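#struct-help
A.M.: can someone run this one for me? Single chain, 253 residues.
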Amino acid sequence: MDRIARAIEELHDATALWEATIPVHRAPDERAVCEGKVQIFRLVGHPRAQRCFAWESENGSGERTVHVVLRLPPIDSAEDAVRSVIPQNHNGVRRPDRRLPMSKTQTDRIEKKTLIQAPVSRVWRALTNAGEIGAWFRVKLEGEFAVGKRITGHMTYPGYEHVKFEATVERMDAEKLFSFRWHPYAVDPKVDYSEEPTTLVEFRLEEQKGGTLLTVVESGFDRLPAGRRDEAFRMNDQGWAIQLENVEHHVAK
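D.P.: on it. Structure tokens below:
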């Protein structure tokens, strides 16, 4: 436990206080990155997160790795935390027939894919209808999406209702491409992000046998201020992995 606490403190420059051990049910592709138990630590001195999830895993060479995931939206459980590290840390197994890992060759771009068992028209509605995206993204939006329009709202994730949502729609090519610009991981109410460069978020839809291939790409991280670039990339990489599962579950209802 001390090894994990030290890793947390070195990574996030905050005091880590152990609170609990949680057993997690793991899918086959999650067993290589988690041995079945996740630790919850309270963070003292972290500017945003009050808690984090952490655990160790061992690779085939006997080397052990400490995984640390902050408890910040959309990650709210140990299972969420374990799922979030698979695309970026596990190279041997992927989610069968559905999840494809992001490219590791760039730090400027996040790309994730999922095959949703629903028609393109249904997935398009889940992405572009303000009420529907609000349900799975956990955001209450004011108004509807329209090309060139700035849309605002606030997060509905418990404990983060103070976080504002702001985006400007770039393209809405019906049932093919939906894109907007925003300030990534803009969660600190004390920071004015308005003068920073934005990133571009693109949702691409392709009809496939068995449903719709949904690809989300977020690019432009290299233009962000150096002081928060890595954290924004890391947190959104984790976040999009969870959000793709959220939209998939939403469409299946």
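A.M.: thanks! The chain has two domains: 2-89, 109-252.
D.P.: also worth noting: The two ends are 40 Å apart (CA to CA).
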